[in-house]
Write a structure and sequence with these properties.
Chains A, B: Keywords: Methyltransferase, S-adenosyl-L-methionine, Transferase, tRNA processing. Chains A, B: It catalyses: 4-demethyl-7-[(3S)-3-amino-3-carboxypropyl]wyosine(37) in tRNA(Phe) + S-adenosyl-L-methionine = 7-[(3S)-3-amino-3-carboxypropyl]wyosine(37) in tRNA(Phe) + S-adenosyl-L-homocysteine + H(+). The structure is a homodimer. Chain A has about 200 residues and is of the alpha+beta class. Chain A is built from five helices and nine strands. The first copy, chain A, has a single domain (about 5-190), classed as tRNA wybutosine-synthesizing-like (SSo0622-like fold), CATH 3.30.1960. Helices cover about 45% and strands about 30% of the residues of chain A. Chain A is elongated and about 65 Å long. In chain A, about 35% of the residues are buried. Chains A and B meet through helix 4, strand 6, strand 7, strand 8 and helix 5 of A and helix 4, strand 6, strand 7, strand 8 and helix 5 of B.
């Protein structure tokens, strides 16, 4: 085994152990388990980080900088109106954003040919946002990002979203959360078919 | 010149001509001209498609599929409340989304080392969404996507956003549009410094 190969083996082993530990401890997004478990069993691929999608309320400071961002509330499931209303009412910071975010997944692999295979596979299932983020000898990481999302500011200074609008946003976010899960199912199916 | 090099030269020539033609005809996003003009002059890079950011109203059908999407209105500048109100009032389709979208830029290059240089450069200026989308011998394309964005459904069936909320969204979208322009300025400066 050469240096490049042994680096890959070490990285794969590390990420596979992290996945198995998170799964055992119930810290793993359950919608992602079938996909990650399949990839863990392959010879040339691993998953590093992933989120099966979420609905959240994010509070930011005046500069609205990412590093200052904080989840005021987050759910990895559909939400109820009263949960969102409680989150809005209890928020005392500068600005509150309502977010419904798509799946995000990092798949690592050994060589660029495998990474390209993932890119083609994503196109097949209709995921447009996929790209190679890391390209090193023996370590290529593809980032996969779903498209269904909502990003809307809902509370700032004197402005606060009204009840009718909140109700509508919750309904749409839940719809999109479910669409997102279907994209994940399609992706899982395609990966199981093509990546052995 | 080998086959790989001649493929790159042809691709670069094609995209450079497309850029110069669009610029001449005034079809080019003017905020992107300094960056694209600089890249056109380099030996090993070209730009393919780009948008310096926009604010738009997007109408979708019941399935909300991308392929059915249509710009009801779009602006490559900050907007006025009355423009958005006119767009909302005149919309008769299934669902209308308000969108403020970040910069998107594709930079092509000859080899993977150059593509990686672009990824590192994006990290330096705080652009998290950048990835290699195409990886072929002699043709590597990096997609760069800004982060400032708003994506919110505002009209569907009996629901329509109220005036106070529209006013607030317009204010935030204009703020983010300007932040987005600053990211583009930073990116342009860094590219001029590092990519010759």
């Amino acid at each position: 085994m050469n240096e490049k190969e042994s680096r890959f083996e070490m990285t794969k082993k590390h990420h596979t152990q992290t996945f198995l530990k998170a799964k055992k401890e119930g810290k793993m997004d359950k919608d992602f388990i079938p996909l990650c478990a399949h990839i863990a069993k392959t010879k040339e691929y691993f998953t590093s980080s992933c989120c099966a999608g979420r609905i959240s309320l994010v509070g930011l400071n005046k500069e609205e900088e990412k590093k200052e961002s904080a989840f005021h509330r987050k759910w990895h499931r559909t939400v109820k109106l009263k949960e969102i209303e409680e989150g809005i009412n209890s928020y005392k910071g500068h600005i509150l954003w309502f977010k419904q975010e798509p799946i995000i997944l990092h798949i690592g692999t050994k060589n660029i040919e495998n990474a390209k295979k993932i890119l083609v596979l994503c196109e097949k299932v209709g995921i447009k946002r996929a790209g190679i983020k890391v390209a090193k000898e023996g370590k290529y990481i593809v980032e996969i990002l779903g498209t269904h999302n909502i990003t809307a500011p809902i509370k700032e200074g004197k402005f606060v979203i009204d009840k009718k609008h909140t109700e509508y946003l919750v309904k749409k976010a839940n719809q999109k959360f479910i669409k997102n899960q279907k994209t994940l199912e399609k992706l899982t199916k395609q990966i199981k078919k093509e990546i052995k």
